[in-house]
Amino acid sequence: MTPTDTSTHLPRILDHLTDAVLLFDRACRLVFINLAGEMLFAVSARQVMAMRARDIFGLSDRTIETDFKRALHDGETLTKRNLTLGPPSLPITANLTIVPILEKDQEEAVLVQIEQVDRHLRISMEEQMLAQQNAARMLLRGLAHEIKNPLGGIRGAAQLLQRELIDEELREYTQIIMDESDRLQSLVDRMLGPNKPLAMAPINIHKVLERVRQLVQVEAPADVLIERDYDPSIPLVNGDGDLLIQAILNIVRNAAQAVGERGRILLRTRIHRQVTIGHRRNRLVVKIDVEDNGPGIQPGLMSQIFYPMVTGRADGTGLGLSIAQTLINQHGGLIECSSVPGHTVFSIFLPLEMGHD
């Protein structure tokens, strides 16, 4: 490859990196940002081009720009660790590597590589969560097998006994046994979730969301507002439409129950690039946010909300989120949650290219 070819392909190469890369001139103004940088700061290149470094990084002082000038003066690479970047509402913990560019016949510049520390922590937590959920599902399947066999025997014996009984009052007791057996059978089936193979096909994720919105809007009180903020450029997703509707419906119904008689739910879609889910890096994913202004999730439940039978409501079964996570996992995706009083967000990540590493 010739030097000319290298310069032609360089921006595309940088856009495939998972770390943010930014280039600043000697006046500390931005001249280049890769896609990972745009995603990190939730901006477009056009918005931030020619902005000063301290404004892009959300820093109130000029320390970072002093570091740039020192790197240029000394001709040495500097590393800044555990800096808090970005707006206060969405802080980012990151390590910065500041590399001076000092080439003859070219204007001096500073290359900044940003390694997001909390991103690595998130990936580690995701891997741990997926492993725990897989173990929980295997345990549930074993328990279900042990429960369903005697349950069928109990129901069958009650049915045979009912046929032999003449006393109507006694027959009512056997009917109660059969009804409760059926209820437990249904509960076990719901704990396991759907076990049919996925019927994968290209689908419009916004049609899925609109179906969910219509269903929940009919069920919810009149003063519960469900708003939409869709990105119309999102391409078709390869998935099972019915199962995606079920998964997202479980989450939006939870949000509607959380806000009560009056509240706001927001459905939002965006494209994200270079997202790691478990051990797989996905070039493109669609992120679906279900946001509500309810009271939030109790801190003690946050690490367990996707486990079966865990619920913060007295009348809840604790199965909705567990089933939703299982269905999204089957699509190669993941559900994450963040919650403070007045602001809870469930984020669904779905790969746009299944099987891509």
Secondary-structure topology with pairs:
Elements: H1 3-15, E1 20-25, E2 30-33, H2 35-41, H3 45-48, H4 53-57, H5 63-74, E3 78-85, E4 92-101, E5 109-116, H6 117-164, H7 168-192, E6 201-203, H8 205-219, E7 223-229, E8 237-239, H9 241-259, E9 262-277, E10 280-292, H10 320-330, E11 334-340, E12 343-351
Parallel strand pairs: 7-9
Antiparallel strand pairs: 1-2, 1-5, 3-4, 4-5, 6-8, 9-10, 10-12, 11-12
General description of the model:
- With 357 residues, this protein is an alpha+beta fold.
- It has 3 domains: 3-119, PAS domain (Beta-Lactamase); 122-192; 201-351, Histidine kinase-like ATPase, C-terminal domain (Heat Shock Protein 90, 2-Layer Sandwich), CATH 3.30.565.
- The protein is 45% helix and 26% strand.
- It has 10 helices and 12 strands.
- It has helices at 3-15, 35-41, 45-48, 53-57, 63-74, 117-164, 168-192, 205-219, 241-259, 320-330, and strands at residues 20-25, 30-33, 78-85, 92-101, 109-116, 201-203, 223-229, 237-239, 262-277, 280-292, 334-340, 343-351.
- Strands 2-1-5-4-3 form a 5-stranded antiparallel β-sheet.
- The mean pLDDT is 81.
Short description:
With 357 residues, this protein is of the alpha+beta class.
Number of domain modules: 3
Taking the alpha carbons of the first and last residues, their distance comes to 25 Å
Structural class: alpha+beta
Segments where pLDDT lies below 50 for 5+ residues?
none
Residue share in helices? 40-55%
Number of DSSP-assigned strands: 12
**Main beta-sheet annotation:** 5 strands, antiparallel
Q: Write the CATH architecture name of the largest domain.
A: 2-Layer Sandwich
Report Rg. Answer: 27 Å
The overall pLDDT, averaged over residues, is 81
CATH level 4 superfamily of the largest domain: Histidine kinase-like ATPase, C-terminal domain
CATH topology of the largest domain: Heat Shock Protein 90
How many helical elements?
10
Percent strand: 25-35%
| Top-tier CATH class of the largest domain | Alpha Beta
Strand order of the largest sheet: 2-1-5-4-3
The shape, in one word, is: elongated
- H/E series: HEEHHHHEEEHHEHEEHEEHEE
